[in-house]
Amino acid sequence: MFKTISLALTMALLAPVAAHAAYPEKPVKIIVSNPPGGPVDVMLRVLASKLGAAWGQPVVVENRPGASGIISTGALVKSAPDGYTLGMVVASSVTIVPFAVDSLPFDTQKDLQPISLVARTPFIFIVPKDSRSKQTISSQKSSAMRKLGIERDADLFRFAFETGI
């Protein structure tokens, strides 16, 4: 009798889980704030291909460039909140832009939820291989520090603190 009741109770508790289909059950769209063909778009398309293969559903990339991410983020905010439309933006689009633009059609604190860090991409200066500029970043930093009378990195932080920069 105990086994029968336990089995019935277990089945009753698992019924909602069994009835709910696995995500995703239809194509997923990712809205990106960058134009087609750029580094962010290419990286996202590789990621979308991998996600599509893992999920068994197509993952469609929709480019909505312009206005420092306001266009793409606005489109995301207006989409159905069903989990089938995601957005990928450069972090500054939702962290700096709200302070630089007086009126946005959305509130980044109330209307958006970050779900994952996708990549960390450093910005670097480059020159042609045969360029006359042979000065590396570290030698430029050393030169600038000498001009300011700074001998080591710790002094640089103190200088920044004292000058308020």
TrEMBL record:
Taxonomic source organism: Achromobacter piechaudii ATCC 43553
Assigned keywords, A-Z: Signal
Pfam hit, one: TctC
Protein name per UniProt: Tripartite tricarboxylate transporter substrate binding protein
Nucleotidyltransferase listed as a keyword: no
Source species taxonomy: Bacteria, Pseudomonadati, Pseudomonadota, Betaproteobacteria, Burkholderiales
Family: Belongs to the UPF0065 (bug) family.
UniProt superkingdom: Bacteria
Range of residues in the leader sequence: 1-21
InterPro entries linked to this entry: BUG, Bug_dom1
